[in-house]
Amino acid sequence: MDLTALTATDIRELLTRRQVSAQELVRAHLDAIEQRDKEVRAYLTLCPERALEKAQQVDALIEAGEDLPPLAGVPTAIKDVILTRGVRTTCASKILCNYIAPYDATAVARLEAAGACVLGKTNCDEFAMGSSTENSGYFPTRNPRDLARVPGGSSGGSAAAVAAGMATVALGSDTGGSIRQPASFCGVVGMMGTYGRVSRFGLVAFASSLDHIGPFGRSVRDVARVLGVIAGRDANDSTSADVPVPDYEAALDESVRGIKLGIPEEYFRGLSSEIGTNIQKGIQLLEKLGCVAVPIRLPHTEAAIACYYIIATAEASSNLARYDGVRYGFRASGYRNLREMYEKTRNQGFGAEVKRRIMLGTYVLSSGYYDAYYLKAQKVRTLITRDFLEAFDEVEVIVTPTSPIPAFRLGERLDDPLQMYLADIYTVTADLAGIPGIAVPCGRTRGEPPLPVGMQLLGKHFDEARLLQVAHAFERGGGFEVA
Ligand code: GLN
Fold first, then answer.
1. CA within 20 to 30 Å of 36's CA: 222, 250, 256, 295, which one?
2. Across residues 471-480, what is the average pLDDT?
3. How close is the Cα of 206 to the center of ligand 1, in Å?
4. Is it the case that residue 418 has pLDDT exceeding 90?
C-alpha cells in the first residue's frame, strides 16, 4: 500500500482498523520527502521530531482503544508564513532567516489538537508576494507534474507537497489567490473560507484586510475536514467571525439538484482555449448532476487587479515596517548609526518584489496621492463586492476558471511583474469581496506532459458548506478527470 497516496479519510479508517500506525505514516512521508523533494523543493524546514512525537501520541490513543480525533495521524505541511512554536518561520525571506516562532498560530494549534502530524514548513513567495514561488528568498519550488514549470504561488510549496505525496494535507494562505491558483497549477483541491472564517492569529501579515489561512488536500472531503477543524471564532483574532461552523462533511452528500450556478461572462474572456474548453465541460457535468447554469455579469471585474495591487501594497508597506533589524530576525552588520542599520538590514533582507511593493504601497498612501489611489481603490472594492452580492441574489454559486493559463515555465514571467500579476485575475476578486472560494481539478491540457486545469467555485459569505457540497458532487461525478 502506498501510504503517501492516502486521503485523511483513508488514514482514519486504516488507523482504526490498526492496519497502519501513525508513526509508519509519518516515516513513509519523511522517506518520500527525502527522495522526491530533492527535485521539487517544496519544504524549507522539516520538523521530524515534532511529527513523530504527535504520531506516538496518536498511536497511544489507538492502543488504549480511545476515539480518534478527526485528523489523527494525518501528515501535514504548513506554509512558512504561519507560526510554529520552536520551529524556524521565515516567510521565505532572508530577513527572517533565523526567526524561531515563540507560539503556534491558532490554525496550527487546532490542527495538532485534532491529531495532525506537522512534518515541516513549505516554501512560498517571500511574504506571500507572488504567483509562482519564484520570489522565495531561498530557491524556487518546481511543479511535481512537470519539473520545468512553476507550482503557482504564493503557496506553491504546500500545493506541490500535497500533489507529490509529501503531505496528505497542507495549510496555505490566500491574499489574492495564493491557495486557489497553486492548487489549480498542481492539480489538487485548495480552499479559502470567508474572510474571518479562520483565525489569522499567527499568520504573518501581508495585507491584513485580505489575508486568509486555508487548506489544501487531494479530495474535497479532506479539505472540508481540515476547514472544519481550523474554522471558528478565536479570541486572539478580533476579526475572526463569531459565526457557528457547520459540520462541513455532513453536507457533502446532499443532492445538488436545482442549485443555481452563475457563469460570469467577464471570466471567460482572454482565456487559453484549452482552459475554456475544460471549464465548459466541467459546467456541463454540473448541469448533468442537476445544477442549473445561468449567465451573470460581474461588471467591475476588469478593475480588480489594479484595485488589489493598490490595497495589498498599501497594507503591506505598513505591515512590513516592523522588520527593522531590532525586533525580528536578521540584522545587517557594519553600520555606523541606527538609520544605517535599518537601511542595510532592509536592503539586504528583502528581495526585489517585496521592495517594489513597499515602495508602491508607500506611494499610494502618501499625502497627495492617498485620495487618488488608495481611497479610490477602496471605493472600487465596494463596487466589486456589490457585484457579487447582487449576483448572489440570483444564484447560489459562481463558476469560473481558477487561472487563465496552466502552470507556466520557470523564469517565463519573472522579468515582467505585470504578467505575473495577471495570473491572479480570476482569484483576487473573492479576496476583495471577502467571499469564500474553492479550486478543484478540472481535467488537463492536451500537451505533453498534460497540465492540470482548475475550476473555481465562489460562494456567499459563510456559505462554505454549499461550495464544498457542489465541489464534492463534481469530484464524485468524475469532474477532476473531465476532458
Ligand atoms: N499573487 C498575488 C500577489 O502577488 C496573491 C498573493 C497571495 O494571495 N498571497 O499578491
1. 222
2. 98
3. 9
4. no
User: Residue 129 CA: which ligand 1 atom is closest?
Assistant: 4
Distance CA 453, CA 115 (A): 32
Pocket of ligand 1, candidates 129, 209, 358: which has the most ligand atoms within 8 Å of its Cβ, to mutate?
Answer: 129
Q: Is the pLDDT assigned to residue 86 strictly greater than 90?
A: yes
Residue of 82, 123, 131, 431 to test ligand 1 pocket, by largest number of atoms within 8 Å of CB? 131
Give the whole-angstrom CA distance, residue 166 versus residue 119.
Answer: 9
For 1-483, give the CATH class: alpha beta
Q: Does residue 334 register a pLDDT over 90?
A: yes
Catalytic, out of 136, 155, 178, 219: 178
> Is 318 exposed, middle or buried (CB count within 10 Å of its CB: 0-12, 13-18, 19+)?
middle
Q: Which residues line ligand 1 (CB under 6 A)?
A: 128-131, 154, 173-178, 206, 312, 424
Cis peptide leading into residue 244 (ω within 30°) = no
CA–centroid distance, 308 to ligand 1, in Å, is 9
178 is catalytic: yes
> For cell 522539516, what's the residue?
46
Note if 79 is an active site residue. Answer: yes
| Cα-based torsion angle of the residue sequence 453, 171, 114, 15 in order, rounded to the nearest 10 degrees | 50
On the question of pLDDT at 275 being above 80, the answer is yes
Active-site choice (54, 79, 121, 460): 79
- Centre of ligand 1 from the C-alpha of residue 416, in Å: 15
Instruction: Identify the bridge partners of residue 263 per DSSP, sorted by sequence position.
Output: 295
Q: What ligand 1 atom has the least distance to the C-alpha of 207?
A: 9
- Does the annotation mark 154 as catalytic? yes
Give residue 419's pLDDT.
Answer: 82
Domain ranges of the chain: 1-483
Rounded-to-integer distance, Cα 93 and Cα 78, Å: 16
Grid cell, residue 231, equals 474554522
User: What local confidence, expressed as pLDDT, does residue 456 receive?
Assistant: 98
Q: What is the pLDDT of residue 415?
A: 86
Tell me the pLDDT tens digit for each residue of 129-167. Answer: 999 999 999 999 999 999 999 999 999 999 999 999 999
- Between CA 478 and CA 201 the distance in angstroms is 37
pLDDT tens digits, residue range 50-81?
999 999 999 999 999 999 999 999 999 999 99
Best residue among 81, 91, 122, 125 to mutate for probing ligand 1, ranked by most atoms within 8 Å of CB: 125
Using CA atoms, how far apart are residues 331 and 327, in angstroms rounded to an integer? 9
Angle, vertex CA 409, rays to CA 145 and CA 304, nearest 5: 100
**φ, ψ for residue 324 (rounded to 5)?**
-120, 5
Would the pTM of this model clear 0.85, i.e. be above it? yes
